[in-house]
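**Fold tokens**
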Amino acid sequence: MATKHEQILKYIDSLSVGEKISVRRIAKEMKVSEGTAYRAIKEAENKGFVSTIERVGTIRIEQKKKENIEKLTYAEVVNVIDGHVLGGKAGLHKTLNKFVIGAMKLDAMMRYTGAGNLLIVGNRIDAHRQALEAGAAVLVTGGFDTEPSIIELADRLELPVISTSYDTFTVAAMINRAIYDQLIKKEVVLVEDILTPLEKTVCLSPQEKLERWYEKNFETGHGRFPVVDDQMKIHGILTSKDVAGYGRSVLIEKVMTKNPITVVGKTSVASAAQMMVWEGIEVLPVVDERQKLIGMISRQDVLKALQMIQKQPQVGEKLDDIVTGGFKESENDKNKPSPVYQYEVTPQMTNHLGTISYGVFTTILTEAANRFLRSLKKGELVIESMTIYFLKPVQMESVIEIKPNILEAGRKFGKMDIEVFHQGALVGKAMMMVQLMERS
């Protein structure tokens, strides 16, 4: 039977898109405490089908699909620009496909404005009316209001009219930045994108005997299974190491590995990879906020995802992409044991003193180590510890050379020394301990 929490989530999910939600209403409708209602609303917000907007309240919105993540809803625009809604609140859940800056004559402006657009304009009442009639929402800049007839039209058409104190070009830049951030989020592969779902996961019960493990091992060829109760809460993991030396009639709960490490669906694959390497584990249970199992990921799943990330085209450029994009390999002597990388320090990569910043320097060293290990087919790198020494300041527009060198290398770990030179002089170095995630 579903818990009260699950019943509330199901109820919220059944509400019409655009409907207003409150803690008091949910508590009254579902006959639960306001604390229980509040927690359920917050989880619905985390799942993306509820949005809270200042001065408007909490509303049911259409849950965005992963492939549509780069598009913003009008509700998200309100939050980005710190605006307030003058009318058309029922349409806040809708998604805008583009925005238009209204800095031209009215007729010319309307040629570019259509359904699903957001017209960014000042105190031009005729433009507000014609944009709404064309199916577009309106963002009024400069702190201006609009006429009551426009608000009435916006409410009738369910198209938001939003006001903000910022100027037209500032809000355009803010919305652009928000869309760009969404594109970057789209690139980040999460555990929920690669997991084996619950319906395809073989689970065992703590009260079953080890005979059950042998049956499932023979059927599937796998040796690691999650152990869950009737409510699908994770209690342990049972592996071939756990069952060794025990008779088949022993209860699973007696030999399973209890309190296993778990991750939630929103964990990045990179974080999951680091966890698996450091803890030396092959599989990770994926749970929801109530510790209920929703699927499993394996080390092979993580490796495939990491390799896919490297191959996919870049859509939104992150700071790390800007830093690592400047790498060039020097034409060094083939007899040298390791490559030499060249890098030019641009003004954006410096601190207030005009010298290379610590964060950028760390990224450069990490990227050099990664490139070197990949060239040796060593797999993915996870840094365990790194000690950096700044010997001389590196000015902007300097061209530095980075020389990585392996001091020790095992199958799963390595010790590296990285030296950085400018005009032949040593300006910095690092000692790095890394763990390696071998490609399957």
User: Anything to note?
Assistant: The longest helix spans residues 168-187. The chain has four domains: 4-60, 66-187, 192-200+235-307, 319-437. The first strand starts at residue 20 and ends at 21. Confidence is low (pLDDT under 50) at residues 65-69.
